[in-house]
Amino acid sequence: xxxxxxxLQGLSVALTPLHLLFCFIxxxxxxxxxxxxxxxxxxxxxxxxxxxVSVGDPTAGIILMAGIYYGAMYGGSITSVLLGVPGxxxxxxxxADGYPMAQQGRGGAALGMCAIGSFIGGTICVILFTILGPSxxxxxxxxxxxxxxxxxxxxxxxxxxxxxxxxxKAYTAALMGLFISTIGLDLVTGASRFxxxxxxxxxxxxxxxxxxxxxxxxxxxxAMEDDALSFKFDKKALSWRKLLPTMxxxxxxxxxxxxxxxxxxxxxxxxxxxxxxxxxxxxxxAKNAAPPERRALFGKGAIEGVTAPETANNAASxxxxxxxxxxxxxxxxxxxxxxxxxxxxxxxxxxxxxxxxPDFIWGLIxxxxxxxxxxxxxxxxxxxxxxxxxxxxxxxxxxVVMSIIIVGxxxxxxNLFDVGMVLAFGLIGYCLRKMDxxxxxxxxxxxxxxxxxxxxxQSLILSSGSMGIFFARPVSCILxxxxxxxxxxxxxxxxxxARKDAAALTES
Amino acid sequence: MNKKCIxxxxxxxxxxxxxxxxxxxxxxxxxxxxxxxxxxxVVPFAAGGGSDIMARSLVKVVMDKKLSSQPILISxxxxxxxxxxxxxxxxxxxxxxxxxTVSSSFYTAPLLGQSPVSYKDFTPICGFAMxxxxxxxxxxxxxxxxxxxxxxxxxxPKSISVGGTSGTSDDAVMxxxxxxxxxxxxxxxxxxxxxxxxxxxxGGHVDMAWVNPGEALGQLEAKKARAIAVASKERLKExxxxxxxxxxxxxxxxxxxxxxxxxxxxxPEAVQYLGEVFKKASEQPDWTDGYLxxxxxxxxxxxxxxxxxxxxxTTKMYEEFLTLAGKINKK
Lengths: 508, 331
Description:
Chain A is mainly alpha-helical. In chain A, 75% of the residues lie in helices and 1% in strands. Chain A has helices spanning 2-14, 17-35, 41-54, 58-82, 92-103, 107-132, 137-142, 145-157, 167-182, 207-225, 240-243, 247-268, 274-289, 292-295, 303-319, 321-327, 333-344, 353-356, 358-388, 394-413, 416-434, 439-462, 469-472, 474-507; strands at residues 184-185, 192-193.
């Protein structure tokens, strides 16, 4: 009963006109920020931090920031679907099926399902957060270095699902990503690796640099060589209703939405790369759980392939507040900026926040309900406007996208070095595409590479060099066994496939 | 329709460009009476981190109280463990409109050969706070004081695990120097950030860690973690119950001064003007109660000359620590 009382109090805080206005501004700004390639949620929040702090009232400030955060999480899907350029790691998987859908003229439906999935995922997670509250902190704490390592290995073994015919190419792409992630200062010894004495490489290569090149530039290069490539677009089909998802879309995706919500919430709660890895896991899971005739469509414009990762990343964005508000530990770049804002307001994030500032905490939780609903309404109203973007002739659209990409690359560190790297990765991406190497494994490995390496080395330092540590702890053991069996399954399938081929040969 | 779309896209680009350039404005013209335009304050780390919060809080006090006749704008130039931001500032020789905040890598990176510029390439402006390290354990830890830790480490070499934030950070330097001084052997487990270290302590994945007081404050107040020792010369004002390391028989003092520097060869009146602005700011209750107290940072204002001396001393201190640590070789 206490929870209901607290929640009502929180909603009353969130529903005051001023807070509603801030929530609205946040969601709109977030959507625009997320839609710009190169400006992900964390960069957007950092840019707007001074404005937020000048608001003066901590509750209004955090409501604004939370709005920007999940607005940007949704906004990322807009460019991923329509232009094929992911703005942040969490929306990489959305490109795989969202962009083909846009090319087939179903971009509106893809965006609509993203909005519905995000709404359901977000709301269920807020409800869970409301009920469970600080006790969730314990789950996040059970994850130590060995558990992280096992989770990362599991995530990486899933890359085979992105290229069923040639898992070897998917694994090669993943190894390339792992290599890129080793560039920079080594965490354990501080030695610089593959930096060629370039201070700009000390911090490693930013994910956004690679994604802008590998997706954005590559896509433009491909479009240039093929004049005929353009969206199939029936202008008459642009009526508002026809742009929205159909009942069939809903029937196909509803179970995926529920599963991804659960996945996003549990994995997203872990400090670190939770939000990204859960989108990959939920995509792989959705693909394997789908009936064979739908499974074949994944990567070619399956609505489930868009909905599952988008639901998961919005669920994870709510879950990311768990470590921030219960432990005082930011789980991601975005929540780190929010923690900075809280400190500047003079609030100490952590367990005591619930006792000392209940108005603030419950006001924030209340605003999450309001913000998620606002996001759903706004996005459904705006989808026709977004989709019309594709009506722009290709040469114009591509030059505009190109300039956005370059500005996005520049804005990362305010220097031209990053822009040069974006262009270089564009060329690499073009070659990879021509040789049929999939991009998602490379990106996934790049995002997870640091955590993978660090958690391995941390675990081995803790265990004084024994690999047994990964199997001695229950959670880690389960994840590791899952990873190993997924590799075994691929090998088994490959061997069986080879035998069948051999049998077919001898018969004929 | 097309026209509308293009207008809309143009609007996006304008927003994007504004976003990109909001942080990166600076200039380099000399003027008759300083300052005649806005001042760029470089934070060589990402927005939202410890250095950034400190700088923003200080600048907010300056702006709120209208202590400076021209606005001071924060500009984050992260990368290369701070060396990119410092190199950028040092490069603006003679330009008093670009200043930078000082943190530990300002001293350690050049010693380790990771930065092209050292304190000699800057003009000291002022110091405003002292930061140190706390040795923190989980609330239910068996250790009550440093002596017990040393005894246990000697009885079971390589069994105690200590979390930290990487091979060249303050806490790593402290860890290796501590091992060397006490003749013990422990395991150093590096993490990406102070936040991850605190999580590892709370989850029982590591036994203890050296952290900045501000990072541990929330957990200490909530009685989830305990502080065993502080590395400063004297006990902290806000944590009188925590004894120093020296009191507990280990003769090590590590404290660094947060301050502000400008590029080389800037005019003395600019140094004096900025020094006065920040001196006034550091006396405001918004700063002393609003920031220092809440983050357990000790305020201590230093003039340009004092801060210049301390920069040389701090570099010497880190040099000694790094040599003592041995594992980290000077280049």
